[in-house]
Write a structure and sequence with these properties.
Elements: E1 3-9, H1 15-27, E2 31-37, H2 45-53, H3 68-73, E3 76-79, H4 82-87, E4 96-99, H5 112-136
Parallel strand pairs: 1-2, 1-3, 3-4
Helix pairs in contact: 1-5, 2-5
């Protein structure tokens, strides 16, 4: 049976996009993966770039707003920021909810290299957590 995972964040531009990309890359056919936001902010080019550095192409993923259908389909909902955790709609019975309080790399400041370092750190943390999640399901 396929396990359906929904990654949820504020704008569906960085963290949830990375999580979707890792879960698709690492999970194979055992998992159906989606990501969405409380709002849709469009995809962050830096998130696409750091994922490409790791060999994961997320450029074809969409930035979408969470829908009731997505929540109904999900077996597991993972919120990847505090705002999404607080604003997460009520979940149907039986849906498992996890919260990963990940820092938002889009809020990083400094030089381009410092900002990219923040994106890489988030990418690596997301990969670690996705691997742990998939192994536990």
């Amino acid at each position: 049976m396929t396990t359906r995972i929904l990654f949820l964040c504020t704008g569906n531009s960085c963290r949830s996009q990375m999580a979707e990309g890792w879960a698709r890359s690492l999970g194979g056919d055992e998992f159906a993966v989606e990501s969405a936001g409380i709002e849709a902010h469009g995809k962050n080019p830096r998130a696409i770039a750091v994922m490409a550095e790791s060999g994961v192409d997320i450029s074809g993923q969409e930035s979408t707003v969470v829908s009731d259908d997505m929540l109904q389909r999900a077996d597991v909902v993972v919120t990847v920021c505090g705002h999404a955790d607080e604003m997460c709609p009520a979940l149907p019975n039986g849906v498992r909810k996890l919260h990963w309080p990940l820092p938002d790399p889009a809020k990083a400041t400094g030089t381009e290299e410092e900002i990219m370092t923040a994106f890489r750190a988030t990418r690596d943390e997301v990969e670690r957590r996705v691997r742990e999640l998939l192994n536990g399901l």
